[in-house]
Design goal:
mainly alpha, two-stranded antiparallel ribbon, about 800 residues, 4 strands, two-stranded antiparallel sheet, flat
Length: about 800
């Protein structure tokens, strides 16, 4: 006896060692004589050197490209951008034009100083010109000052009530809130409101000029600035709303106003609403009620609400409309709400299915049950005599947590059978009811649920598992119950069973798969799905089920392929891409052949049959010269070679020799192609490096010269701009003096004198010479047409007017 036990232990130990060894052999790397040859080693070294060389060249190329990219004018780009609007053919021509313009400008200044001292005096030595002009306006035309002040203080048209001067102060000196107000009042394209809320009130960040959103934002800003809208403004704003969401935001603001204003606004709206013919009036009443409840102010407007609702009552029709009106009325006039509710309390079929109607039903029922306990009779059938179990379930769910007495009665009167069929929504409701009112009968209910899933073909296994979990069943227990029901109901009628799916297999644990292995043998029509699950969770059963399917019908293995767990390819890195290793799939027949070759004793004949079609296809391709395989084809050939290498059968050895030769040829060709590709890449990168070096060398030779000319051009351009700005200021000064020599305000005359003076300053600037001369001629023609007191002011008159206004005497200048 002891010897027998010892023998058994030894056999078990040997079998374990054998199995471990076979597993290790099965996952060993695929070797090949070519991988040990000097040719392969030399090719690997060549590839390593070429890759290193290519890496160095690529790094150098990247550095040169970055240098070329940042070299292109670099920090001169902004200067070129500023000069780009000037018409020029080259930097040299620009510099010449700017130099000549500045020279002529200097000549013009020298001319003024020597030959026109009166104008020089006005331009450079006079002061207080604006004050002098204002004094003349005050003495001779004070109405103009009044108009100007009135214009500055006038409110912006169509917008908020702050005047322009106040807006300017907000813009220049205001705090963040005041600046936000200006942003809203004067919107710009692409600019959004800087806040999403102000004082707890939502504002619209995107809005158009003149839109409701802009006007609402302005009202909120004014409210935040302690200048809330008046009653009329708030009512007008409500009248402009376009959506229910707009209505909510407006009433958020209204109910933040003082109590008197809020009450006035609500009263005015309630007096108008009954006259409206759209359902929007009910939306507004609901919003008003909700806001009143929030701040506990229903008493302020209760009388107005009751009066408005009484006027609306004759217009109420339909179950949904009546129920909605009862929900509105219940807080204002419960007695009248009870009468309205009685009209629809038995219309449960129309109420159920609409979330809003169900919520309103529960709200009204809970409110009325406090003053009227028996809304329904104790033995009430709710007019459900002709309705199915599904409708009864939904009615019970409607009363659940609203009136548990009614919900319990309906639930306990349900008589579920295995033939009962409910939809998903009805089952979800029934589970909650069953757990609450009939939890002791959970097993019977689960049995009905399981039968319904199988018998009526419920398609979503996830829903069933969720139902089972809510009833206290594990996934394995639920799966076992489904499999038993499927076996009992369908038996061997395989075409009618719809239980097996990827989703169902995903729920099964390895233990559950093992327990139901015999059931899976009866469902070979779904063999692919079952094998996928076994491959991932039970490899030991995977091979057994694969063998069973092959013996039953070899066609079941067609197109079955799985992740590689037979052999490693690490030695073939560099010959085959890493991406191909990841996507390669091993045909199911290879797994069976591997088991046959490694079985004890081996079964080479069956293995050869499994591999014959694939192996023959490879040999035919070799014979007809189509041996240029892609990565996946090459991996398949390597796997065949590996499988035949594990057998000592003569035919298997012969196939191995042929495949070994084919693989060697393929490997040499792939190495050669890789070396050629590297040579081509090195050559191309080298040519790019040479080209870039030549280009950079040329550019560096011109860089200093170009940059110097750019800086010269930019400095000259800046001086010209400064000259033009100075000319503008001086022209304004001269025109002010010219107008001051007349009585009253001469706007047209001021513009003419300014235009002529500024144009004379622009004549030396060659870019504006033609335009400036044209303006001068036009203004001179205008001056020629004036006569008498309206004569065009010359420099002497302008100077005399200035001196008279300042009570000064410059006789020498006047005489000159």
């Amino acid at each position: 006896m002891n010897n027998s036990i010892l023998l058994i232990l030894v056999l078990v130990f040997c079998f374990g060692v054998s199995a471990t060894t076979l597993a290790e052999v099965g996952m060993q790397d695929i070797d090949h004589p070519y991988l040990s040859s000097d040719e392969y080693k030399k090719n690997v070294e060549d590839i390593r050197q070429k890759e290193t060389e290519l890496q160095h060249i690529t790094s150098e190329l990247n550095e040169l490209q970055n240098e070329r990219k940042h070299f292109s004018w670099g920090n001169m780009s902004f200067i070129l951008g500023g000069l780009s609007f000037l018409p020029l053919f080259s930097l040299d021509s620009l510099i010449a034009i700017l130099l000549l313009s500045l020279f002529l400008a200097v000549v013009y200044f020298l001319y003024l100083k020597k030959y026109n001292p009166a104008k020089w005096f006005i331009l450079f030595k006079s002061n207080g010109n604006l004050a002098l002009l204002l004094k003349r306006m005050k003495d001779h035309n004070s109405l103009m000052l009044v108009l100007i002040v009135t214009l500055l203080l006038s409110p912006a048209i169509g917008l908020a009530g702050t005047d322009v001067l106040t807006d300017a102060k907000y813009f220049l000196f205001g705090n963040e809130l005041e600046k936000a107000y200006i942003t809203v009042k004067y919107p710009k394209a692409g600019i959004e409101a800087p806040y999403s809320t102000l004082k707890g009130i939502k504002i619209y960040q995107k809005f158009a000029d003149g839109s409701f959103e802009q006007q609402f934002n302005l009202a909120v800003c004014e409210f935040a600035l302690d200048s809330p809208p008046k009653t009329a403004d708030a009512v007008q704003l409500i009248e402009k709303v376009r959506t229910v969401e707009n209505l909510h935001t407006v009433y958020d603001l209204v109910f933040r106003l003082d109590a008197a204003t809020m009450k006035d606004v609500v009263r005015k709206r309630l007096s108008v609403l009954p006259k409206l013919r759209s359902d929007a009036k009910y939306d507004e009443v609901e919003i008003i009620l909700a806001k009143c409840r929030e701040i506990n102010s229903l008493g302020l407007v209760a009388d107005d609400l009751a009066a408005a609702l009484n006027q609306m009552l004759p217009d109420v029709t339909g179950t949904a409309g009546t129920l909605r009106f009862a929900a509105i009325l219940v807080d204002v006039d419960p007695a009248r709400a009870s009468e309205v509710f009685d009209r629809v309390k038995y219309h449960l079929k129309e109420i159920i299915g609409d979330k809003d109607n169900e919520l309103r039903f529960k709200t009204v029922y809970l409110a009325l049950s406090k003053i009227r306990p028996n809304i329904y009779k104790p033995d009430d059938s709710f007019q459900l005599e002709d309705q199915g179990d599904g409708m009864r379930v939904l009615v019970a769910a409607l009363f659940n947590n609203t009136d548990d007495r009614i919900a319990s009665t309906i639930t306990r009167n349900l008589r579920l059978e295995r033939s009962t069929h409910l939809n998903q929504k009805e089952y979800e409701a029934l589970i909650d009811l069953w757990k609450k009112y009939r939890n002791e009968e959970a097993p019977a209910f689960f049995d009905v649920l399981t039968a319904t899933f199988i018998n009526h073909g419920m398609s979503n296994i996830g829903i069933f598992m969720n139902f089972a979990a809510r009833l206290g069943y594990s996934e394995d227990a639920a799966a076992d119950a489904l499999i038993k029901q499927d076996s009992d109901y369908h038996g061997l009628r395989l075409d009618q069973s719809t239980l097996i799916s990827k989703e169902f297999i995903a729920f099964l644990s390895p233990e559950c798969l093992g327990r139901n292995f015999e059931y899976f043998k009866t469902r070979t029509a779904q063999a692919k799905i079952i094998l996928d699950g076994l491959f991932q969770k039970r490899e030991d059963l995977f091979s057994d089920y694969l063998r069973y399917c092959y013996e039953k019908d070899p066609q079941l293995l067609t197109d079955l392929a799985y992740a590689n767990k037979l052999a490693g390819f690490s030695k073939w890195n560099g010959i085959i891409s890493n991406q191909s290793f990841g996507i390669f799939r091993v045909p199911g027949c290879y797994y069976l052949a591997s088991k046959d070759f490694l079985a004890s004793p081996p079964d080479p004949q069956r293995a050869k049959v499994l591999l014959q079609r694939n192996a023959d296809d490879r040999l035919k391709s070799l014979i007809i010269g189509e041996n240029n395989l892609d990565d996946l084809g090459f991996l398949d050939e390597l796997m065949l070679y590996h499988l035949y290498s594990g057998s000592s059968d003569p035919q298997a050895v012969e196939r191995k020799i042929v495949l070994e030769s084919s693989i060697g040829t393929q490997a040499r060709a792939r190495m050669s192609q890789r070396i050629s590709a590297l040579d081509s890449q090195i050559k191309g990168a080298g040519e790019q490096v040479y080209s870039l070096k030549s280009e950079l060398s040329t550019m560096k030779g011109r860089k200093l010269s170009v940059h110097i000319r750019i800086w010269i051009a930019s400095i000259l351009f800046s001086i010209v701009c400064l000259y033009i700005l100075t000319a503008f200021v001086l022209s304004l000064k001269y025109a002010t003096n010219a107008v001051a020599s007349y009585s009253g305000t001469r706007v047209g005359l001021f513009a003419a004198v300014f235009a002529e003076t500024f144009s004379k300053f622009l004549v030396p600037i060659l870019y504006f010479t033609v335009e400036a001369l044209f303006v001068i001629i036009v203004v001179q023609l205008f001056g020629f047409l004036r006569s008498g007191d309206r004569e065009y002011p010359n420099v002497q008159r302008s100077l005399r007017g200035y001196l008279d206004g300042r009570n000064r005497s410059e006789t020498g200048i006047l005489r000159t």
